[in-house]
Design goal:
This protein is mostly beta strands and 112 residues long. It is built from no helices and 11 strands.
Length: 112
């Protein structure tokens, strides 16, 4: 059974940073493209980033390019998302997803 468990969210001031982690189990993590997405209150799911199986290629929408960085450690079955220059509009539940599954999310709140 696939399990994706996110952590690292919290309350941060505008301009601050956070590093999200997602520990994967139940599948061969190193073989799959993985993604991060988020959902703000009252809004739909927004794709944030993808990374290919060996970590060589990363993709971002323009809305977060230059502020967010995706990475992975296949030896630790862990996916990361570094969030820099956070804005109030980045407040959302952040999800790790892949192999047709999504974790339960970690809440990021950006507020002064």
């Amino acid at each position: 059974e696939v399990h994706l468990v996110e952590s690292g969210g919290g309350l941060v001031q505008p301009g601050g940073s956070l590093r999200l982690s997602c520990v994967a189990s139940g599948f061969t993590f190193s073989r799959y493209t993985m993604e991060w997405a988020r959902q703000a209150p009252g809004k739909g799911l927004e794709w944030l980033s993808s990374i290919n199986s060996d970590g060589d290629n990363q993709y971002y929408p323009d809305s977060v390019k230059g502020r967010f960085t995706i990475s992975r450690d296949n030896a630790k079955n862990t996916l990361y998302l570094q969030l820099n220059g956070l804005k109030t509009e980045d407040t959302a539940m952040y999800y790790c997803q892949g192999v047709g599954s999504r974790g339960q999310g970690t809440q990021v709140t950006v507020s002064s």
